[in-house]
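Aim 2 progress update. The chain analyzed this quarter is reproduced below.
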Amino acid sequence: MFKKKEPVYVSHLNEIRRAKGLSVEELAEKVRVSKQTIDSIELEKHKLSLELAYEISGALDCRLEEVFPRVGGK
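Predicted structure tokens:
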């Protein structure tokens, strides 16, 4: 009856964070958010602001498009 909502963004955060050797806690500390926020972003369940997306990609020394290749609608 109810359709599952598609995520507003696609996240490669988990893969990139692990490749950089960072824990969820370490990344959360770098961008000054909770561990739960990072977990939710990795699961594509968090309402991600553009500002936070840029902070995360900067902390990972990546371009925004690498971490979040699709932001917005289809």
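Residues 50-59 form the longest helix (10 residues). The chain is about 50% helix and 5% strand. These observations will guide the mutagenesis experiments scheduled for the next reporting period.
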